[in-house]
Every structure is written in C-alpha cells, then in structure tokens.
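hiii so um. not sure if this is the right channel but i have a protein structure encoded as tokens and i wanna go backwards to a sequence. like what aa goes where. can anyone help
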C-alpha cells in the first residue's frame, strides 16, 4: 500500500513558507502523494492554489485534491482549465479528487442551494470531462488529470465508475473502508469497467511534542459543525504515536486500501519527517 501525506492547507495559521517546506520534506521522505482538503467557510488555503505552490517546489510526488467540493465550483470549465494548468506545470502529477462536502454554510456562502447536490456534482463532472476532451481549452502537453470520486454511498460508487479511475473514502475506519470499497468494486464491475478501481483513504496523524493536544485543538475546531461529541471522537482517532500509525497502515492495507493519505494536525514541516520515520 502506498502512503501519501496531506498538505496542512486546512490547518489554521500556516504560512506559505511552511506549506512549501512541508511539500519539499514530503517529497524527500518518499511519500506517494500530497493531498489537500477543501472548505469555503474556514481559514484554509484553496486546494488548487496550494497544489500549484507545491508543484513549484517538488518534482516527482503526486498532487491530489482529496477531495475538492465539485458542486461549489460554479464555473466547472474554469476549474477544469485550472486543473489542466496544474497538471501541465507539474509534469502530469495531478489527480483531481472530487466530492460533495457536508457543510451547509459552504453552500450558502457559495450561493449554491444545498439540495440535489448529487445532480449538481454530475453536471460539474460532465463539464470537466468535456473540457478535458477539448484540445482548444488549457495548455498542451501533460494531458488530463486523473479523477477520483469521493463519497460513502452507492451513488458515489456509481459516479466513480462512470467518471473516474477509482474512489476515495473520507474519514473511515478500516472496517468501514472495506465495506465501502466492496461497493465501489461492485459498481465498477456493473459498469463494465476493466480491471480494478483505484482505492484510496484518509486518516489523521499528529506526532512529536504535544501531539494529542495539537490533534484535539485542530480537529475539534475543524469538525465543530458536527457537534462536540463527534468532533471529540474524530480528534481521539488521530494517530499520535508511531505504533498507532503502523496499526492504521496495517488495518487499511488489510481492508484493501491501495493508498492511505495521512493528514497532519499542525502545519509544522517537521511533521512530514516524523511521519516518514514512523512508516519507515
């Protein structure tokens, strides 16, 4: 199983210098990919902008939105052109992970009604697909980015089989991942796709000094919209020592995950080094 790492693009108060240094260290540690999280009503860096910055200071590591909120991108063609631009600038390293998002305030701030969001996502993906096939839009060279679809319900699995090269889970335990991955594989087969879908997942980590406190402070704030009990549960699930990191990797690999992206709870670039040591 490949191990990726998340950029701290959604961790509050991260400087641009820390973000790019984090990317440099992640590549030096040999992680498979750099992921990004998407939100509107939060103090985060926009995912494609963050990945463009990472592309400049790296050469080999995959760049991935994991995931970008498709229905909130009202001009899908412009978003697709941005993705094509990053793919060209990075030498073909972009994977566009796309999902729905769970926060109503993100939709409200974007002027998008929070209903029939599945249909909105399908429309977004149709335009992205058409743009990727249109040689007159976007720079020539690297071609179209790869697409992964996020989500935890049957419609998401079918969407992955229709538009993408695979599926990516949000926050899920290994057991939950295995159950959903089976659904993604079933939809893939029923759609007549050859081979197996790419299957990826996410988890949180916080290592080193004050690891548990960093995980608590960040994750209870980021997930406060779900209520205190759920936010506390998510914060408590973060891997805060090397043994737990290894247990997560073993659990997800056993569940059929092909790549696990570990997201940090602080923007300190040293977290990339600490995770690299933990997975070595």
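sure thing!! here u go:
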């Amino acid at each position: 199983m490949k191990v990726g790492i998340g950029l701290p693009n959604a961790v509050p108060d991260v400087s641009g210098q820390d973000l790019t240094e984090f990317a440099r260290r992640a590549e030096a540690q040999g992680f498979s990919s750099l992921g990004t999280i998407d939100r509107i009503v939060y103090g985060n860096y926009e995912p494609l902008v963050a990945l463009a910055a990472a592309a400049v200071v790296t050469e080999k590591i995959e760049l991935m939105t994991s995931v970008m909120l498709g229905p909130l991108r009202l001009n899908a063609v412009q978003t697709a052109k941005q993705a094509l631009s990053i793919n060209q600038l990075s030498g073909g390293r972009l994977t566009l992970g796309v999902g729905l998002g769970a926060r109503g305030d993100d939709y409200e701030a974007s002027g998008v009604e929070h209903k029939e969001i599945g249909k909105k996502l399908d429309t977004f993906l149709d335009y992205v697909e058409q743009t990727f096939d249109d040689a007159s839009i976007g720079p020539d060279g690297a071609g179209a980015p790869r697409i992964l679809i996020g989500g935890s319900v049957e419609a998401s699995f079918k969407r992955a089989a229709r538009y993408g090269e695979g599926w990516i889970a949000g926050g899920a335990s290994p057991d939950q991942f295995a159950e959903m991955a089976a659904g993604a594989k079933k939809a893939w087969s029923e759609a007549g796709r050859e081979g197996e879908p790419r299957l990826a997942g996410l988890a949180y980590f916080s290592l080193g000094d004050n690891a548990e406190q960093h995980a608590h402070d960040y994750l209870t704030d980021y997930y406060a919209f779900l209520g205190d009990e759920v936010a506390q549960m998510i914060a408590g699930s973060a891997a805060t020592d090397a043994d737990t990191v290894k247990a997560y990797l073993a659990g997800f690999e056993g569940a059929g995950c092909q790549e696990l992206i570990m997201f940090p709870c602080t923007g300190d670039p040293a977290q990339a080094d600490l995770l690299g040591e933990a997975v070595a």
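oh and Residues 103 and 226 are 9 Å apart (CA to CA).
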